[in-house]
Amino acid sequence: MDQTIVEDIIKKVMAQVGSTGTPESSVAGDAIPVELSGRHVHLCEEDIKELFGAPLTHVKELSQPGQYLCKERVRLIGPSGVIDNVAVLGPARPKSQVELSLTDARILGIKAPVRQSGDVAGTPGIVLTSGSGLAGLEEGVIVAARHIHMSPADAARFGVSDNQKVDVHMDGSRPAVFKDVIVRVNKDFRLAMHIDFDEANSCGLGKNARGKIVGVTQEA
Amino acid sequence: MDQTIVEDIIKKVMAQVGSTGTPESSVAGDAIPVELSGRHVHLCEEDIKELFGAPLTHVKELSQPGQYLCKERVRLIGPSGVIDNVAVLGPARPKSQVELSLTDARILGIKAPVRQSGDVAGTPGIVLTSGSGLAGLEEGVIVAARHIHMSPADAARFGVSDNQKVDVHMDGSRPAVFKDVIVRVNKDFRLAMHIDFDEANSCGLGKNARGKIVGVTQEA
């Protein structure tokens, strides 16, 4: 995950609205800040113990309140490949989950489905190692469905609702409209669209990229 | 380049129209077969000599008449990475050209611009090796702009013209509309949309993927 980009976006947003950290409607106009999610894992307490034998170490806050990057890293091991130095995000979750791009999934040889975070029933498994420990997941490997985090105030402003799927115009060097972008509304969310690197590359997105809702793909 | 997919598409198209190899309007309805272009190089005579010391060896025809995959392979060497076993396409061209995805460009550490094939003025260079020879390109590294090859009959049928940019709906597991897709009309072209793996992954395209023109981004 390119934290520089994420932090840069947050700084600019905060400067723009003069926020002190409590998001309401956090970006003016109809532009939605786009954040690129690199491959990462969320771990349950049991897998944290297996892999590291100690609690996760907080390094820095992420854009969504309460989520943080950890010092710990893992190796992903699949049938046809290995990916090293993969970010671990905290806090611990009830179930471990590995979020990949389709490019990553191809390298590992894992047929990962596009799913919403947390919806891991029936997904493929994977092996994780840490240098000192190993954890085998029976399921939990997904390609995270693209989505927009927003507060109720932002949802009202855009005229959208939780779990609605919308069309978003991405203004990169080769523009595209992504369909089926899931709206996720929560009072603790800051306005941010999350996509993976395949999606960013497909439309040639640069830094400080923006999206714009241009239609509704499917009602909630 | 996944030749299996390409061949599969060609077979199905040919079966559908009962063609004997002379394309006119080669697919019924408004569906456009999508072919995934993997990373590959086109070489000028001088670079072929430097790298292999002999003419290219024909292995198999590609979907566009006259274009073929060669037995020869090259290594791409950039400032921050190396990619091995890269396909060489024949015949020789006036200028060498390396076509990458943005994911590949990131691995190599090369800032490749999105360009039409052949439009390489001012693009970054690269080093190619073959095991027995080496060629240094001063320019020629591009990310190929997505495009649709079609015959004049297909262009008339779709109501589009050469060099027009169109919007194409891609019906993958996470659908999208690609803007700025360049229409290329030539009597020798078979109907096929060419995209790279970043683009295919961004919309979760499977085998036998199809696109549909849904609008005009920009007139020719």
Automatic annotation (TrEMBL), chains A, B:
<comment type="function">
    <text>Involved in 1,2-propanediol (1,2-PD) degradation by catalyzing the conversion of propanoyl-CoA to propanoyl-phosphate.</text>
</comment>
<dbReference type="InterPro" id="IPR008300">
    <property type="entry name" value="PTAC"/>
</dbReference>
<keyword id="KW-1283">Bacterial microcompartment</keyword>
<keyword id="KW-0862">Zinc</keyword>
<comment type="pathway">
    <text>Polyol metabolism; 1,2-propanediol degradation.</text>
</comment>
<dbReference type="GO" id="GO:0016747">
    <property type="term" value="F:acyltransferase activity, transferring groups other than amino-acyl groups"/>
</dbReference>
<keyword id="KW-0012">Acyltransferase</keyword>
<keyword id="KW-0808">Transferase</keyword>
<dbReference type="GO" id="GO:0031469">
    <property type="term" value="C:bacterial microcompartment"/>
</dbReference>
<dbReference type="GO" id="GO:0051144">
    <property type="term" value="P:1,2-propanediol catabolic process"/>
</dbReference>
<comment type="similarity">
    <text>Belongs to the PduL family.</text>
</comment>
<dbReference type="GO" id="GO:0046872">
    <property type="term" value="F:metal ion binding"/>
</dbReference>
<dbReference type="Pfam" id="PF06130">
    <property type="entry name" value="PTAC"/>
</dbReference>
<keyword id="KW-0479">Metal-binding</keyword>
<protein>
    <recommendedName>
        <fullName>Phosphate propanoyltransferase</fullName>
        <ecNumber>2.3.1.222</ecNumber>
    </recommendedName>
</protein>
